[in-house]
Amino acid sequence: MTKVKDLTKQEIKISVSNEIPLNVLEKRLKKGWSVQRSINTPYVSKNTNKMTDSDRLTMFLNGVSSQIYSVRQKQGWKHEDIINTVCKPSYKYIISHFEPHEMFALYINDMSVSGYKQRRKKGWGHKEAIFIPSDIAPETIQQGDYPLTVDELETIYQNGSTLYTYRMHRALGWSKEKAMTIPKRRSCYKQIIQSFKEKKAI
Predict the structure, then answer these.
(1) Using one digit for the tens of pLDDT, what is the confidence trace for 172-184?
(2) pLDDT bracket for residue 36 (50, 70, 90)
(3) Deepest in the core among 45, 74, 168, 173, taking most CB within 10 A?
(4) CA-closest candidate to residue 110, choices 27, 167, 53, 187
């Protein structure tokens, strides 16, 4: 079975240019897709609610989970009111329990406060519950093609990057240290950091 690490740099670059997430590429190859089909078939997100990235970030910063969104929607709330009205319990929990880079990781990994709490109840450590994406098996972090300790994984998010970006850079031939420490600052990273500082000051 072909793995991502078996692909050439040119094939990885084609995948990146076609905006195919690394985890999607891995799944396609695991299913037996040919390399050419895997790197050239457009990726269509299963997110059917047409939520924009800006909406998702606003919801996250206001402590509004997808479950809360659905409840408010059923109650007749308008979209703008749903995402802009702070959910105080989740909001307060986020501000009091997480550091800025941890908030960024939760957002990027699409992990809600309830999802974090469920992981903790199952015995996950604080860092594991935050930094391991929801669609990644925990054991693959330290045993996969590009193994990482949890502390190294945290470093990646502290630099405003992600596990998927790290793995893609490694697949392109970057050294481990370079892939971990060279930041890929996203606009949402800066927004989350600024919002955190403002909310902490209140």
Answers:
(1) 889 999 999 887 6
(2) very high
(3) 168
(4) 53
